[in-house]
Specification:
By secondary structure, the protein is an alpha+beta fold. It has seven helices and eight strands, in the order αααβββαβααββββα.
Length: 260
Amino acid sequence: RPHEPWFVPKKYFEPFPLESIQLPPGYKADDVDDLPPAGQRLARNRYFAHIQKHEQWKKGIQAYLASIHFADAMLGRVLDALEKSPQRDNTIVVLWSDHGWHLGEKEHWQKYTGWRVCARVPLMIRVPKGAPGLPEGTTPGSVCDRPVSLVDLFGTLTDLCGLPKKEDISNSSLVPLLRDPQAVWPHAALTHLDKPENYAISTQRWRYIHYAGDEEELYDIEADPHEWTNLATKPEHAAKLAEMRLFAPKNIAPVHKSKP
């Protein structure tokens, strides 16, 4: 969680009265007009149309917030138990999610997209003092805004635990960012969608989305954090578009198909 169905105890709804609910700041009525055909097909979905038709938008947002509140409380119970246990100083805690969630941005509800609102997830790492790979000078509570991939957690945890590296696994350890959250980070974060040719690339300032058939989107998230303006067709951004294409995955594993 938070994932549908958003069934949580009533008390977790109470901090979010319906009259105080605001619509997502990333929503813009004409947001999909400059998307390629593949992006437009992905954006508009029947779930959001249904929610709007039946005037359930704010109720849906309220339920989403209540579900997050509930998940946070349950996580707190787990962490409180860990703090009281003999394993407190021998346990690394990593909190992350598998995807974000559209609440109407790009006229979309749920997930399954390459836009930032879906691709970004929380990622928190708690490392006890004395962990073999914890860098000197790491500051508790530090925040890092570098784009990273969840596959990087494997290399991060092996480093923190002092275990041998696995050279046959493609990932980048995040330990240097624990030491210095502002360290130079040359890596791009990759998000795969439903087909091998559908993916998104995130760097510190830019986001690139590629669809099967070579349809593309490009965003300057420093100037346009909600990805409202697709720059892929602008001649003045041709060089940046070519640069982002260099991060495209070179080898993609075949899609597994279950036997009938």
